[in-house]
Design brief:
- The longest helix is centred in the C-terminal third of the chain and has 17 residues.
- It contains 9 helices and no strands.
- By secondary structure, it is mainly alpha-helical.
Length: 144
Amino acid sequence: MNYALSYDPEDVDSLCLMGRIYSKMLTDYNKAKLYFEEAIQCDMTNLNVPQYYIKCLLDNEDLNEAEKLISYSLKIKGIDRSIILMHRSLLSEKRGSLANALKFLKEAEKHCFTSCSLELVKERKKFIQSKRPKNKTKKKKEIQ
């Protein structure tokens, strides 16, 4: 990667890949953010960088930055909206709003165009629903 970047230091895909390596494998989020930021500065309309950069921000608990990038990313023509909306759902979940997380997953379902991505969204919905507290008022009404 260093060789590729020394050849072309503004290659967006190499910068993105370097950010992914630092984010996922080395868990050095600050260094990863630097690579992602540089990649976005080189090409603001790249379709790959936002999804990985958002995930890095969420993992590093930079929630406000992640929210801004999600809003911007949804305006990029041709981006995979289902992935971005799944990240938006994760953001809501991290903030403690499971209802909003489910709302964004429902919206993500509309933008799934492969069975794999649809299955991923459905699994995520099941997981979040399992985290929601059970409604005890229904049981009390049934007993009376």
